[in-house]
Amino acid sequence: MPDFSKRSYDRELLDDPLMPFEQIKQTMRELNIINTWLGGHRVTVKGLRELLNGKRQISICEIGCGGGDNLAVLHGWCQQHGIEATFTGIDINPHSIAFAKEVYGELGIEFVCSDYRANALSTKPDIFFNSLFCHHFTENELIDMLKWMRINSRIGFFINDLHRHPVAYYSIKWLTKLLSKSSLVKNDAPLSVRRGFKKAEWIKLFDSAGLPLASPRWEWAFRHLIVCKNGWI
C-alpha cells in the first residue's frame, strides 16, 4: 500500500515529451470526461466566480491548459452569464496545444505552446488559474510558480488540484482500470493523486512564497480549491 503521508515524485507518463500524439489525444478526451463527471469543472467555475466579484469584463489565462477543456467550460459559462471574457491557454506540450486548437479553436480561445515562464505576455491578464497542474512540480518549483502568478496577474489567481488521500487513489485506480481505454490515464490518474498535496502542505507552500492564503477548501471529489486575491496583499 502506498504511503500517503508523503508525496510521490515518480514521473507521470504525460510529462514525457516523446509521448505519441494519438495517446495524448485519447488522454485529453478522457480527462475532460473525468473533470465533468467527478466535479473538476465545477470547482474551476467556482474559482472564477470568486475572483470575478461582479466584474462583467475579464481576461483569463490558464497555465498548463492541456487539451483546453477547462477554458472551454469557462468560455461557455461566461457566455451564459453575459460576461465579456478573453481566454488564453499556455502549455509546454505541442501535442496538447494541437489537440486544444483542433477541438476548441473555433471558440476564439488563444492557445500558446510555451513554458509558462518564458511566454512574454503583452499585457497582464486579470486572472491566472491552473487545474491538475501543480502536482507535476516539486515544492521549490511550485513556490516559484505561486510568486509568478501573483506578480503577473492583475486581480489574482486560483488553483484547482488533487487532495492526496487513499480513497481518491483507489477510487480513480479502479474507475480507470474498468473504464479507460488509455494506458497513460490508467497509470497517471492514480499517480497524480499520490503526487497531490494535503491542506497543511498548501499552507506551508504559500507561507514559503510569502503570500497570504485563504484556507484551502476541500471540494468534491477530493480536490482543493485555493483562491488568492491580490487585494489581500
Automatic annotation (TrEMBL):
Q: Which UniProt keywords apply?
A: Methyltransferase, Transferase
Mention one GO molecular function.
methyltransferase activity
GO-annotated biological processes: methylation
Question: Which residues belong to any copy of the Methyltransferase domain?
Answer: 60-149
Q: What Pfam family is a match, any one?
A: Methyltransf_25
Q: Which CDD domains match?
A: AdoMet_MTases (cd02440)
Q: Would you tell me the protein name for this molecule?
A: Methyltransferase domain-containing protein
Record organism = Sphingobacterium alkalisoli
